[in-house]
C-alpha cells in the first residue's frame, strides 16, 4: 500500500487534492507505460551483456580495433580463462554486438555497427556532459 500512499501524496501536491479515482487513473497510466517500455524489450540483452567486465572489455577492444581479431589476440586483453573468453564472445555474438568468422582452426571476431554506435554515442554524451 505504500506505493499508493506515496502516489496519493504526489498527486495531492500536483493537483491540490486527490481522490481514489485519481490514484487509479495514475496507476493505469503507469501500467501502460510499463507495458510500452518493457513489453517487447529487444534491446535489454544488448545492455545486459555489457554489464559484465570481460564482455565489456572485449567489445570495447574490438570497437577500438576497427578490424577483426583472432580469439588468441583477444585472450591477453582480459584476465580470464580461455573458456570464459569463448563464452563471453558467444554471448556478444548472440546480443548482436560482434560477428564471428571461422577460418580453419581460427575464429575471428569483429564489432558490429551496433557496438560501434553504442560506444560512439556514449562517448559523445559523456564528453559533452
What does this entry look like structurally?
The chain has 129 residues and is mainly alpha-helical. Helix content is 66%, strand content 11%. A three-stranded antiparallel beta sheet has the order 1-3-2. Strand 2 and strand 3 form a beta hairpin. Helix 1 packs across helix 2 and helix 4 crosses helix 6. The model has no long low-confidence stretch (mean pLDDT 91).
Task: List its salient traits.
129 residues, mainly alpha, 11% strand, elongated, three-stranded antiparallel β-sheet
The rough form would be described as elongated
- List unreliable stretches of 5+ residues: none
Give the tally of β-strands: 3
In angstroms, what is the radius of gyration?
22 Å
Q: Strand count, sense and closure of the main sheet?
A: 3 strands, antiparallel
Q: What is the number of helical segments per DSSP (H or I, 4+ residues)?
A: 7
Order of helices and strands: HHHHEHHEEH
Distance between the termini: 39 Å
Strand pairing plus helix content: what structural class? mainly alpha
Record the strand order, biggest sheet: 1-3-2
* Nearest-integer average pLDDT: 91
Strand content: 5-15%
Helix content: 55-70%
Amino acid at each position: 500500500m505504500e506505493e499508493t500512499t506515496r502516489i496519493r501524496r504526489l498527486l495531492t501536491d500536483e493537483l491540490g487534492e486527490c481522490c481514489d479515482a485519481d490514484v487509479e487513473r495514475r496507476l493505469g497510466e503507469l501500467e501502460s507505460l510499463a507495458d510500452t517500455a518493457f513489453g517487447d524489450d529487444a534491446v535489454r540483452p544488448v545492455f545486459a551483456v555489457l554489464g559484465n567486465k570481460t564482455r565489456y572489455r572485449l567489445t570495447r577492444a574490438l570497437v577500438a580495433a576497427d578490424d577483426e581479431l583472432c580469439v588468441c589476440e583477444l585472450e591477453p586483453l582480459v584476465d580470464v580463462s580461455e573458456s570464459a573468453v569463448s563464452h563471453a564472445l558467444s554471448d556478444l555474438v548472440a546480443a548482436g554486438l560482434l560477428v564471428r568468422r571461422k577460418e580453419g582452426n581460427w575464429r575471428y571476431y569483429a564489432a558490429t555497427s551496433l557496438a560501434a554506435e553504442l560506444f560512439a554515442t556514449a562517448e559523445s554524451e559523456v564528453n559533452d556532459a
